[in-house]
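Saturday, quiet lab. Running sequence design on the structure tokens for the scaffold JK sent over.
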């Protein structure tokens, strides 16, 4: 049953995204990765102001397309799907700890399905062209949302000591390192999480939860790697600093684009008290959602995919709240009615946005 469920979800992803129009960002970074695989030079063959990790994310897909008959965009769909499956399995393991059940238990399996469904089907524009055109599947922000879920929950789960689950904690830290290499500005939300953890557990406990030593070492190594391998990137970074303000949007537009994330934040906050075993995860997601909104406000860009970390994190936590209440739903307890409503609405919403943003 577990394998059948995963196979069904992956088949749906391939059905919806296989011939979809990819975001121009994804298409360009995939092209840049292909040029890099052919020996292209930064600043000459690749003019990209984002950190090199943004291009390296798509390098495996570019190499797969180069060495096989698979088209680049198809290879990208497979690669991103594999990443999201991995993120979902690790995040589901954290949920299993919250429920005090093995990850192979039915609720643990359904948690993985719920998280993957959110990450794979929820990365569109809610079926509304006013939030932008195209399909955001494979966007860096959506991938980063999945990569940061485990460390977010391990850091902000008040009653859990992450280092006591050493393998899971180190895996979560490694995933966070990858996320920060793709988009270093996501260190901003991390500082908010560390501040919350410091308030609860003291600064030493907060830094242990964040795996700060590993993050710092990885950050220094990444800077050295960029300087040694991609020294030309510094010139494009200076260009980005000079032109960044040209893309800033007014506050009214930012408020409008943030509506879905703000609505989900309000729903998650209201649902926290009735989330069952997933309560600490939903509470942590509300903190993360707010911090992601702060980051998007600082960036002040009108593109909806900047809202995806907040939107997807909140949707994933709400989905886990439903899974955590399933035993009560099946026994007909009235207190689980809000979770039942979410269980009915969220899948339809996600499929709507995924299908309407295929082309």
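Result came back. Writing it out in full:
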């Amino acid at each position: 049953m577990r394998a059948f469920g995963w196979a069904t979800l992956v088949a749906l992803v391939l059905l919806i995204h296989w011939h979809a129009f990819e975001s121009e960002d994804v298409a360009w970074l995939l092209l840049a990765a292909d040029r890099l695989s052919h020996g292209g030079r930064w600043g000459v063959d690749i003019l990209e102001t984002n950190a090199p990790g943004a291009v390296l994310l798509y390098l495996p897909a570019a190499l797969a397309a180069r060495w096989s008959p698979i088209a680049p965009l198809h290879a990208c769909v497979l690669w991103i799907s594999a990443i999201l499956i991995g993120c979902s399995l690790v995040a589901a393991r954290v949920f299993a700890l919250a429920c005090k059940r093995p990850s192979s238990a039915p609720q643990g399996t359904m948690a993985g399905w719920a998280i993957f469904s959110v990450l794979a089907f929820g990365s569109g524009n809610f079926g509304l062209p006013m939030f932008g055109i195209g399909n955001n599947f494979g966007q860096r922000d959506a991938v980063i949302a999945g990569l940061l879920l485990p460390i977010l929950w391990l850091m902000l789960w008040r009653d859990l000591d992450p280092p006591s689950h050493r393998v899971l904690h180190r895996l979560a830290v490694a995933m966070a390192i990858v996320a920060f290499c793709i988009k270093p500005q996501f260190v901003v939300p991390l500082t908010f999480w560390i501040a919350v953890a410091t308030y609860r557990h003291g600064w030493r406990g907060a830094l242990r939860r964040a795996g700060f030593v590993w993050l710092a070492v990885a950050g220094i190594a990444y800077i050295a790697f960029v300087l040694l391998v991609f020294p030309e990137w510094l010139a494009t970074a200076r260009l980005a600093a000079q032109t960044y303000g040209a893309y800033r949007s007014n506050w009214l537009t930012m408020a409008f684009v943030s509506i879905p994330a703000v609505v989900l934040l309000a729903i998650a906050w209201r649902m926290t008290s009735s989330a069952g075993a997933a309560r600490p995860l939903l509470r942590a997601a509300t903190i993360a959602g707010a911090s992601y909104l702060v980051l998007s406000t600082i960036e002040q860009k009108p593109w909806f995919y900047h809202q995806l970390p907040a939107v997807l994190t909140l949707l994933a936590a709400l989905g886990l709240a439903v899974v955590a209440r399933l035993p009560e739903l099946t026994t007909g307890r009235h207190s689980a009615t809000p979770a039942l409503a979410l269980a009915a609405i969220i899948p339809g919403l996600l499929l709507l946005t995924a299908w309407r943003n295929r082309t």
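Notes for JK: The longest helix spans residues 72-99. Residues 4 and 82 are 16 Å apart (CA to CA). Ask whether to fix the surface positions before the next round.
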